[in-house]
């Protein structure tokens, strides 16, 4: 069995009387694309927040690469390689694509503090940023102002900002949101191309994209993971079907 890079162990998060995360268990294997699905309000975002460190759980533990990181603050999780896309830097619209990515490279290396190395590190940083831009399909847009990019390209850039942090595990919350069919197709291809480099935990409502991308899918219902398995296992699972009945995002809609 592959290494478990992320282990969510009996996590509980309450908002007043509402149990948004209810003894959730989840294991993500290194090298996989793992999707987290569930009906609206199931608690997907709340769970992602607890994994990234934006929210503290009331009970349970988050283990990352064999270490209990439940008390580790968000920025330190990112430095350890657990990166939520868009968590550290959001796009600076008035800066170029290259400058945006270079800032993210700098955030990882902390080179702003090492000003005596500035001249040398600057060229390295920009070379690395250009390589990331190429990687995300924006190699022809290095000097374009980020605000002038299309919506889909801005989402690609957001992904680039996360990749520049050299993550081991990338958390993506609805990367296809607001995209047209062509842009979604590009993003699916981009995520496919990343599978050999980084483990991905993905929350996504676009079931077609989920079924095409995910090696494993976990289904969250009322804050609890009710099933984990391959796309086919999830499509065939009666509890999952039941949970989606009446939901317009129903797995049945794409299962046939
Ligand atoms: N800060 C908060 N305070 C109170 N209740 C919250 C808070 N954040 C989320 N909730 C509630 O927790 C539940 C889970 O919400 P969450 O946003 O995690 O679900 P989700 O699965 O991501 O939903 P969606 O698919 O619609 O984005 C919902 O009932 C929501 O109203």
Automatic annotation (TrEMBL):
<dbReference type="GO" id="GO:0005524">
    <property type="term" value="F:ATP binding"/>
</dbReference>
<keyword id="KW-0472">Membrane</keyword>
<dbReference type="GO" id="GO:0005886">
    <property type="term" value="C:plasma membrane"/>
</dbReference>
<dbReference type="InterPro" id="IPR003439">
    <property type="entry name" value="ABC_transporter-like_ATP-bd"/>
</dbReference>
<dbReference type="InterPro" id="IPR032823">
    <property type="entry name" value="BCA_ABC_TP_C"/>
</dbReference>
<keyword id="KW-0067">ATP-binding</keyword>
<dbReference type="Pfam" id="PF12399">
    <property type="entry name" value="BCA_ABC_TP_C"/>
</dbReference>
<feature type="domain" description="ABC transporter">
    <location>
        <begin position="6"/>
        <end position="247"/>
    </location>
</feature>
<dbReference type="GO" id="GO:0016887">
    <property type="term" value="F:ATP hydrolysis activity"/>
</dbReference>
<dbReference type="InterPro" id="IPR027417">
    <property type="entry name" value="P-loop_NTPase"/>
</dbReference>
<dbReference type="Pfam" id="PF00005">
    <property type="entry name" value="ABC_tran"/>
</dbReference>
<keyword id="KW-0547">Nucleotide-binding</keyword>
<protein>
    <submittedName>
        <fullName>ABC transporter ATP-binding protein</fullName>
    </submittedName>
</protein>
<dbReference type="InterPro" id="IPR051120">
    <property type="entry name" value="ABC_AA/LPS_Transport"/>
</dbReference>
<keyword id="KW-1003">Cell membrane</keyword>
<dbReference type="InterPro" id="IPR003593">
    <property type="entry name" value="AAA+_ATPase"/>
</dbReference>
<keyword id="KW-0813">Transport</keyword>
């Amino acid at each position: 069995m592959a290494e478990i890079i992320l282990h969510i162990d009996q996590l509980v998060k309450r908002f007043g009387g509402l149990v948004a995360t209810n003894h959730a268990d989840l294991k993500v294997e290194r090298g996989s694309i793992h999707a987290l699905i569930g009906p609206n309000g199931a608690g997907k975002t709340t769970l992602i927040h607890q994994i990234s460190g934006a929210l503290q759980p009331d009970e349970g533990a988050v283990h990352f690469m064999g270490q209990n990181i439940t008390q580790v603050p968000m920025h330190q999780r990112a430095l350890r390689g657990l990166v939520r896309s868009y968590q550290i830097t959001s796009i600076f619209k008035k800066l170029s694509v290259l400058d945006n990515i270079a800032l993210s490279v700098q955030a990882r290396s902390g080179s702003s503090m090492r000003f005596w190395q500035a001249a040398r590190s600057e060229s390295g940083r920009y070379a690395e940023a250009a390589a990331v831009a190429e990687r995300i399909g924006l190699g022809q847009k290095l000097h374009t102002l980020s605000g002038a990019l299309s919506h889909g390209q801005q989402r690609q850039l957001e992904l680039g900002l996360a990749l520049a942090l050299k993550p081991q595990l990338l958390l993506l919350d609805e990367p296809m949101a607001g995209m047209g069919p062509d842009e979604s197709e590009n993003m699916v291809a981009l995520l496919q191309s990343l599978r050999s480099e980084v483990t991905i935990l993905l929350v996504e409502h676009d079931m077609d994209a989920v079924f095409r991308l995910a090696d494993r899918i976990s289904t969250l219902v009322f804050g609890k993971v009710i099933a984990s398995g391959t796309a086919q296992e999830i499509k065939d699972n009666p509890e999952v079907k039941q949970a989606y009945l009446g939901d317009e995002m129903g797995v049945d809609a794409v299962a046939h």
